[in-house]
Amino acid sequence: MLTRKIKLCHINAHITCRLCDGYLIDATTVTECLHTFCRSCLVKYLEENNTCPTCRIVIHQSHPLQYIGHDRTMQDIVYKLVPGLQEAEIKKQREFYQKLGMEVPGDIKGELCNMKTHLDQRNGTETANKEAGEEKPEEDNDYHRSDEQVSICLECNSSKLRGLKRKWIRCSAQATVLHLKKFIAKKLNLTSFNELDILCNEEILGKDHTLKFVVVTRWRFKAPKFMVIFLNNLVLHFRHE
Question: Membrane-spanning regions, if any (predicted)?
Protein backbone atom coordinates (compact mmCIF):
# COMPACT_ATOMS: atom_id res chain seq x y z
CA MET A 1 0.00 0.00 0.00
CA LEU A 2 1.40 3.36 -1.07
CA THR A 3 1.76 6.03 1.58
CA ARG A 4 2.20 9.72 1.05
CA LYS A 5 4.00 11.97 3.48
CA ILE A 6 2.73 15.51 3.91
CA LYS A 7 4.83 18.23 5.49
CA LEU A 8 3.29 20.06 8.44
CA CYS A 9 3.94 23.41 6.79
CA HIS A 10 1.54 22.47 3.98
CA ILE A 11 -1.43 22.19 6.38
CA ASN A 12 -0.50 24.92 8.86
CA ALA A 13 -3.12 27.24 7.37
CA HIS A 14 -5.86 24.81 8.44
CA ILE A 15 -4.73 24.30 12.05
CA THR A 16 -3.63 27.81 13.04
CA CYS A 17 -5.59 30.70 14.54
CA ARG A 18 -6.06 33.66 12.23
CA LEU A 19 -5.98 36.07 15.19
CA CYS A 20 -2.68 35.03 16.82
CA ASP A 21 -1.08 33.04 13.96
CA GLY A 22 -0.30 30.23 16.42
CA TYR A 23 -1.54 26.65 16.55
CA LEU A 24 -5.12 26.32 17.79
CA ILE A 25 -5.41 26.04 21.57
CA ASP A 26 -8.85 25.25 23.04
CA ALA A 27 -10.23 25.39 19.50
CA THR A 28 -13.54 27.26 19.30
CA THR A 29 -15.76 27.42 16.22
CA VAL A 30 -18.27 30.07 15.14
CA THR A 31 -21.54 28.20 14.58
CA GLU A 32 -22.67 30.59 11.86
CA CYS A 33 -19.74 30.06 9.45
CA LEU A 34 -17.67 27.23 11.05
CA HIS A 35 -14.42 29.22 11.19
CA THR A 36 -12.21 28.17 14.09
CA PHE A 37 -9.94 30.15 16.42
CA CYS A 38 -8.27 29.88 19.83
CA ARG A 39 -10.95 30.43 22.48
CA SER A 40 -9.04 33.16 24.32
CA CYS A 41 -8.32 34.99 21.04
CA LEU A 42 -11.92 34.80 19.85
CA VAL A 43 -13.47 35.86 23.17
CA LYS A 44 -11.15 38.87 23.39
CA TYR A 45 -11.98 39.81 19.78
CA LEU A 46 -15.73 39.53 20.37
CA GLU A 47 -15.58 41.92 23.32
CA GLU A 48 -15.48 44.75 20.77
CA ASN A 49 -16.81 43.08 17.59
CA ASN A 50 -19.77 40.93 16.57
CA THR A 51 -18.48 39.57 13.25
CA CYS A 52 -16.31 36.60 12.30
CA PRO A 53 -12.61 37.63 12.03
CA THR A 54 -12.26 35.60 8.83
CA CYS A 55 -15.37 36.16 6.72
CA ARG A 56 -16.84 39.19 8.58
CA ILE A 57 -20.29 37.62 8.74
CA VAL A 58 -22.38 38.94 11.66
CA ILE A 59 -22.38 36.29 14.38
CA HIS A 60 -25.06 38.00 16.49
CA GLN A 61 -25.97 41.63 16.93
CA SER A 62 -25.79 41.73 20.72
CA HIS A 63 -24.63 38.35 22.11
CA PRO A 64 -22.06 36.80 19.75
CA LEU A 65 -20.47 34.77 22.58
CA GLN A 66 -23.59 32.60 22.69
CA TYR A 67 -22.95 31.43 19.12
CA ILE A 68 -19.50 29.94 19.47
CA GLY A 69 -18.65 26.45 20.68
CA HIS A 70 -15.69 24.30 21.68
CA ASP A 71 -14.46 22.14 18.78
CA ARG A 72 -12.99 19.07 20.47
CA THR A 73 -12.45 17.22 17.18
CA MET A 74 -10.35 20.02 15.72
CA GLN A 75 -8.32 20.33 18.92
CA ASP A 76 -7.61 16.59 18.93
CA ILE A 77 -6.44 16.80 15.31
CA VAL A 78 -4.09 19.69 16.11
CA TYR A 79 -2.59 17.83 19.09
CA LYS A 80 -2.09 14.73 16.94
CA LEU A 81 -0.41 16.62 14.12
CA VAL A 82 1.90 18.91 16.11
CA PRO A 83 4.45 16.97 18.21
CA GLY A 84 4.81 18.16 21.80
CA LEU A 85 2.11 20.85 21.55
CA GLN A 86 -0.29 19.30 24.07
CA GLU A 87 2.47 18.58 26.57
CA ALA A 88 3.80 22.14 26.27
CA GLU A 89 0.32 23.66 26.72
CA ILE A 90 -0.47 21.57 29.80
CA LYS A 91 2.89 22.56 31.30
CA LYS A 92 2.15 26.26 30.69
CA GLN A 93 -1.27 25.96 32.34
CA ARG A 94 0.21 24.23 35.36
CA GLU A 95 2.90 26.91 35.74
CA PHE A 96 0.24 29.62 35.40
CA TYR A 97 -1.85 28.28 38.29
CA GLN A 98 1.22 27.68 40.43
CA LYS A 99 2.38 31.28 39.81
CA LEU A 100 -0.98 32.56 41.09
CA GLY A 101 -0.74 30.30 44.11
CA MET A 102 -3.85 28.38 43.04
CA GLU A 103 -4.40 24.64 42.99
CA VAL A 104 -4.05 23.05 39.56
CA PRO A 105 -7.55 22.06 38.30
CA GLY A 106 -8.30 18.36 38.28
CA ASP A 107 -8.72 18.08 34.50
CA ILE A 108 -5.16 19.33 33.95
CA LYS A 109 -3.89 16.89 36.56
CA GLY A 110 -5.75 14.11 34.78
CA GLU A 111 -4.25 15.00 31.43
CA LEU A 112 -0.78 15.03 32.97
CA CYS A 113 -1.33 11.56 34.46
CA ASN A 114 -2.68 10.20 31.19
CA MET A 115 0.23 11.69 29.30
CA LYS A 116 2.73 10.16 31.72
CA THR A 117 1.05 6.76 31.46
CA HIS A 118 1.14 6.94 27.67
CA LEU A 119 4.86 7.76 27.70
CA ASP A 120 5.56 4.94 30.18
CA GLN A 121 3.74 2.43 28.00
CA ARG A 122 5.51 3.63 24.89
CA ASN A 123 8.90 3.26 26.58
CA GLY A 124 8.04 -0.15 27.99
CA THR A 125 8.14 0.91 31.64
CA GLU A 126 4.66 -0.11 32.80
CA THR A 127 4.27 -0.45 36.53
CA ALA A 128 3.99 -3.79 38.33
CA ASN A 129 0.37 -3.03 39.24
CA LYS A 130 -0.66 -3.69 35.65
CA GLU A 131 0.56 -7.28 35.67
CA ALA A 132 -2.07 -9.94 35.05
CA GLY A 133 -4.14 -10.88 38.07
CA GLU A 134 -2.76 -8.14 40.32
CA GLU A 135 -5.27 -5.75 41.83
CA LYS A 136 -4.73 -2.02 42.19
CA PRO A 137 -4.14 -0.60 45.68
CA GLU A 138 -7.28 0.43 47.49
CA GLU A 139 -6.24 4.08 47.57
CA ASP A 140 -6.32 4.18 43.74
CA ASN A 141 -9.97 3.13 43.62
CA ASP A 142 -11.32 6.65 44.05
CA TYR A 143 -14.51 7.10 42.07
CA HIS A 144 -15.17 10.67 43.25
CA ARG A 145 -14.51 13.69 41.08
CA SER A 146 -11.02 15.09 41.57
CA ASP A 147 -11.50 18.26 39.53
CA GLU A 148 -12.01 21.74 40.96
CA GLN A 149 -15.40 22.30 42.59
CA VAL A 150 -17.48 25.46 42.74
CA SER A 151 -20.39 26.57 44.94
CA ILE A 152 -23.06 28.53 43.07
CA CYS A 153 -25.96 30.64 44.21
CA LEU A 154 -28.71 30.68 41.55
CA GLU A 155 -30.93 33.71 42.06
CA CYS A 156 -34.16 34.26 40.11
CA ASN A 157 -34.16 37.64 38.35
CA SER A 158 -37.63 37.48 36.79
CA SER A 159 -41.14 38.01 38.10
CA LYS A 160 -42.35 35.32 35.66
CA LEU A 161 -40.44 32.57 37.42
CA ARG A 162 -40.46 31.20 40.92
CA GLY A 163 -37.15 30.78 42.69
CA LEU A 164 -35.48 27.47 43.43
CA LYS A 165 -36.18 25.91 46.83
CA ARG A 166 -32.49 25.15 47.18
CA LYS A 167 -30.59 27.84 45.34
CA TRP A 168 -27.10 26.76 46.46
CA ILE A 169 -25.53 23.93 44.46
CA ARG A 170 -22.01 22.53 44.23
CA CYS A 171 -20.60 21.14 41.01
CA SER A 172 -17.50 20.88 38.85
CA ALA A 173 -15.81 24.11 37.73
CA GLN A 174 -15.85 22.56 34.25
CA ALA A 175 -19.67 22.53 34.18
CA THR A 176 -21.08 24.81 31.49
CA VAL A 177 -23.86 27.40 31.47
CA LEU A 178 -25.86 24.94 29.36
CA HIS A 179 -25.68 22.42 32.20
CA LEU A 180 -27.10 25.05 34.56
CA LYS A 181 -29.89 25.88 32.11
CA LYS A 182 -30.94 22.24 31.87
CA PHE A 183 -30.75 21.85 35.65
CA ILE A 184 -32.94 24.91 36.32
CA ALA A 185 -35.44 23.97 33.59
CA LYS A 186 -35.86 20.52 35.11
CA LYS A 187 -36.28 21.87 38.64
CA LEU A 188 -38.87 24.44 37.50
CA ASN A 189 -40.66 22.02 35.12
CA LEU A 190 -40.11 24.27 32.10
CA THR A 191 -40.84 22.94 28.64
CA SER A 192 -37.44 24.02 27.29
CA PHE A 193 -34.17 25.22 28.78
CA ASN A 194 -33.94 27.68 25.85
CA GLU A 195 -36.48 29.84 27.71
CA LEU A 196 -33.79 30.77 30.24
CA ASP A 197 -30.88 33.21 30.30
CA ILE A 198 -28.02 32.89 32.78
CA LEU A 199 -26.46 36.22 33.81
CA CYS A 200 -23.35 37.27 35.67
CA ASN A 201 -22.92 40.96 36.52
CA GLU A 202 -25.96 41.70 34.32
CA GLU A 203 -24.25 40.08 31.30
CA ILE A 204 -25.79 37.10 29.53
CA LEU A 205 -23.39 34.17 29.46
CA GLY A 206 -22.84 31.91 26.46
CA LYS A 207 -24.13 28.35 26.76
CA ASP A 208 -20.66 26.84 26.22
CA HIS A 209 -18.96 28.93 28.91
CA THR A 210 -17.59 26.86 31.78
CA LEU A 211 -17.85 28.21 35.32
CA LYS A 212 -14.06 28.38 35.42
CA PHE A 213 -14.11 30.45 32.22
CA VAL A 214 -16.66 32.83 33.76
CA VAL A 215 -14.36 33.43 36.71
CA VAL A 216 -11.21 33.93 34.67
CA THR A 217 -12.74 36.25 32.08
CA ARG A 218 -14.80 38.35 34.52
CA TRP A 219 -12.15 38.54 37.24
CA ARG A 220 -8.93 38.39 35.25
CA PHE A 221 -7.67 41.75 36.58
CA LYS A 222 -8.35 40.89 40.22
CA ALA A 223 -5.86 39.54 42.74
CA PRO A 224 -5.75 35.72 43.02
CA LYS A 225 -7.43 35.70 46.44
CA PHE A 226 -10.47 37.46 45.01
CA MET A 227 -10.65 34.94 42.18
CA VAL A 228 -10.68 32.08 44.68
CA ILE A 229 -13.37 33.74 46.80
CA PHE A 230 -15.53 34.40 43.75
CA LEU A 231 -15.02 30.87 42.45
CA ASN A 232 -16.19 29.32 45.69
CA ASN A 233 -19.16 31.67 46.05
CA LEU A 234 -20.31 32.30 42.48
CA VAL A 235 -23.65 34.12 42.27
CA LEU A 236 -25.58 33.83 39.01
CA HIS A 237 -29.03 35.03 38.02
CA PHE A 238 -31.50 33.38 35.69
CA ARG A 239 -34.54 34.77 33.90
CA HIS A 240 -36.84 34.34 30.90
CA GLU A 241 -35.50 35.48 27.54
Answer: none
CA–CA gap between residue 236 and residue 220 (Å, rounded): 18
pLDDT in tens, 125-140: 444 444 544 554 444 4
Residues 6+ apart with CB under 8 A from 166: none
Residue bearing the bigger pLDDT, 24 or 150:
24
Which uninterrupted H or E stretch holds 92?
A: helix 85-99
What is the pTM assigned to this prediction? 0.50
User: ∠77-106-218 over CA atoms, to 5°?
Assistant: 85
Angle at the Cα of 157 (from 202 to 194), degrees rounded to 5? 85
What's the CA gap between 54 and 29, in Å, rounded? 12
Spatial separation of the C-alpha atoms in residues 203 and 186, rounded to whole Å? 23
Spatial distance between the Cα atoms of 46 and 37, rounded to a whole number of angstroms? 12
